[in-house]
Amino acid sequence: MSRHAVLLVNLGSPDSTSVEDVRAYLRDFLMDPRVLDVPYPARWAIVNLGILPRRPAQSAEAYEKIWTPQGSPLIVTSRKVQAALQSRLSVPVELAMRYRNPSVQDAILRLRDKGVDEVLVIPLFPHYAMSSYETAVERVKEIAASLAPGMALAVMPPYYDHPDYIRALVGSAREYLEGDYPHILFSFHGIPERHLHKTDPSGCHCLKRHDCCDTPHAAHGTCYRAQCFKTVRAFVAKAHVPEHRYSVAFQSRLGRDPWLKPYTDWVLEGLGKAGVGKLAVICPAFVSDCLETLEEIGLRGRQTFQRAGGGSFTLIPCLNDQPLWIAALENMANRWLGKSATPSLASVAVQSIQTTAPGA
To answer: What are the strands, taking DSSP E only, across 33-143?
Structure first.
């Protein structure tokens, strides 16, 4: 008789705000060939000679601004989500981070020791990107094949416009959109444009035409940009947001190569210069508040907007451990387990990730 379990996977965080721990985290993250997708010699030189000598101290200072007494906000919140989901399910629920702790290896070992042989992997990334969703899934597959070769994995597909996710997202923002209606900025984590080309199975659609994201195509199954815009369209339709009252941008770019545009910091400055008196920013690509939401947007983004002449600024919290989000995760698991779930939830199937031939 098979024994089932659920594995939640998020990106990760340094173990502490010490420069040494931040350096270790950045090394793990940036040496991933699905993040910095250049040949190994170039990647090693960029990371070890160009980034790690100075960046860890800067990042450690940023982490100190958002760190909680319990630790990293991302880890603390993810553990709350794990506990809340565990209280609703009869099968084990484990948590792992793609980088650092709690590790994928430890999670797989715990599941193996419990006799689990079928696992639903839920990446805590609503959208497909090789530097988040794909690398997390591939890491779980790699570790499971090594430590528990008999363990079968099912993977929750990206749920960027799924009704349960959109319902939770709109619910998390509703109180911030009442009364004097603000301008809303949807800020998604950015990725290099070349990543879209690599995840385009046709090799001839993504960013090859001005309306690529609006034209139905098989490439959208792994196109981060198209999925982000679908999230926005679903959100504004459900929340009845007027078209002229929202913008979309992409944050957290690194290096000189072109990343997805428009850039969030540029948009924030432009909105400030335009005299927007009330701005609310939501970050749908993140399900848990973290450095990129709390510090990059909540602190630096606020400063950019208001220094340019903008008025009030509100950072809408991520889904975190809100009940609607926990219910959405519960539905994902129950559908896989064959139990009753919200009828709108799509079937979960074993998914084979198409790797994108990152630099070796």
So the answer is: 93-99, 118-123
Topology of domain 163-315, CATH: Rossmann fold (3.40.50)
Instruction: Read off the pTM.
Output: 0.92
Residue 226: left (phi > 0), alpha (psi -120 to 50), or beta?
alpha
| Residues β-bridged to residue 38 | none
H-helix or E-strand spanning residue 62? helix 55-66
Dump strand ranges (E) for 181-327: 183-189, 246-251, 278-282, 312-315
Asked whether 247 and 187 are in contact (CB, 8 A), the reply is: no
Spatial distance between the Cα atoms of 4 and 172, rounded to a whole number of angstroms: 30
The tens digit of pLDDT for each residue in 16-39 reads: 999 999 999 999 999 999 999 999
Q: What is the CATH number of domain 4-159+323-337?
A: 3.40.50.1400
Whole-number Å distance between alpha carbons of 153 and 276: 48
For the chain, the structural domain boundaries read 4-159+323-337, 163-315
